[in-house]
Amino acid sequence: MFSLVVVLGVAGGCSRGAASPASSTPPAGTTITNCGRTVSVTTAPQRALTLEQNATEILLSLGLSDRMIGTSYQTDPVLPELTAAYDAVPKLADLYPNREAVLQARPDFVYSTFTSAYATDAAGPRAELADLKIPAYLSRFACEDPTTGEKAVTFDGILAEITEIAGVFGVDGKGAEIVAAQRARLDAVKGAGTDTTEVLWYYSGTTTPYVAGPNGLPAAISTHLGVRNTYGDASQTWPAGNWEQIAQRDPDVIVLADLTRGGDGDSAAAKAEFLRTNPVTAQLDAVRNNRLVTVSGSSMDPSIRSVTAVEQVATALKEFGK
């Protein structure tokens, strides 16, 4: 009978030296198809700009801090082993930088794992950046046109993205090292749960709770661990739930997203307190038996932290006997 709060650990394949300058032989030129667009670099980027934390941590984990001229949109504390490297890279904006700030930074490669980073009031559309000879990469899980990307998040897709980014920067060896380490960690916890265990992934909101449905990272974790996603039958990846329906479904375990940027009301601690004091949610089996797990908000999206989130939930399921 306890509440398990797990702090995010080391990203797969990372060590104390992971964020040091990467040794590589820059490719003569690389052209890839990314979300339906051709992205070309004439040589390995030397002035990369990341538009949010998950992209930032991928580049830092590949040892590319010396080739980064800016970061932006930090949503969680940076992974401890990447902190020194992160602090050495200028922060361009608290949220997304606007187009003017991007152009002033003179990047030779821009990377985001969210479509919203390329909005007209943010960095600007990728097509416009391409017209200015600035290659702009977008995660395959967030393509502007969904038909050009992945329909659902998979761990194979996440690792393929890390491999592709490593290739663009000419650090294929480091990419392979990270991917191999993450695959080994995934294999170690595969099927750690039971198919009778229902897990609710609670992302944000109290009056209207936003939860994880199919096709996102939580769904991929659920499948990998062999448990059932309470909202796996939803029509959206992040549907709006309601507490009465959640009470009827009565999940066995609840995973809480710790959204530090969302303020105290969206922290995992605040969510747990709400669940315990709200008359409807206080009766949930998972709440009464303190089967709550905390993960960082960014780990509920495809990232280098995704494997850590799998391990966190696997550990909790074992402790809970689920």
TrEMBL record:
<dbReference type="InterPro" id="IPR002491">
    <property type="entry name" value="ABC_transptr_periplasmic_BD"/>
</dbReference>
<feature type="domain" description="Fe/B12 periplasmic-binding">
    <location>
        <begin position="47"/>
        <end position="322"/>
    </location>
</feature>
<protein>
    <submittedName>
        <fullName>ABC transporter substrate-binding protein</fullName>
    </submittedName>
</protein>
<comment type="similarity">
    <text>Belongs to the bacterial solute-binding protein 8 family.</text>
</comment>
<dbReference type="InterPro" id="IPR050902">
    <property type="entry name" value="ABC_Transporter_SBP"/>
</dbReference>
<dbReference type="Pfam" id="PF01497">
    <property type="entry name" value="Peripla_BP_2"/>
</dbReference>
